């Protein structure tokens, strides 16, 4: 077991606290503007950016920060709201696609300005260019190292 030094714990705490604070602020802005919460918006983004605005549920689960059961609940709610439809696959009776509806696309586009403003106000504007590059480089390095380990 590695003994963590105080500076190592400090960088971890700074990352966790900054993330939590920024997300909390953006969630509050979305709520104030009566927009979808970030977990839902994450699903809309993944579908919007996919070919034909649809993804297999298993592929969607790999693109969002939700558990599979959490994703199922979000998709069920989005279906009730008319933002997403589920479509059975021809080749696999158990498989299904999540498909972004026209209203889902509209909600995605209505939500983006609130979300992007939050990203800018609570994160981007606080850091200078050099700091942004360093944060991106460091977090990309962590992400890529962990992806290689999944292998």
UniProtKB/TrEMBL annotation:
InterPro entries: HTH_MarR-typ, MarR/SlyA-like, WH-like_DNA-bd_sf, WH_DNA-bd_sf. Residues 1-144 form the HTH marR-type domain. Keywords: DNA-binding. GO terms for biological process: response to stress. Pfam families: MarR. SUPFAM superfamilies: Winged helix' DNA-binding domain. One of its GO terms (molecular function) is DNA binding. The keyword Membrane does not apply. This is HTH marR-type domain-containing protein. It comes from Paenibacillus elgii.
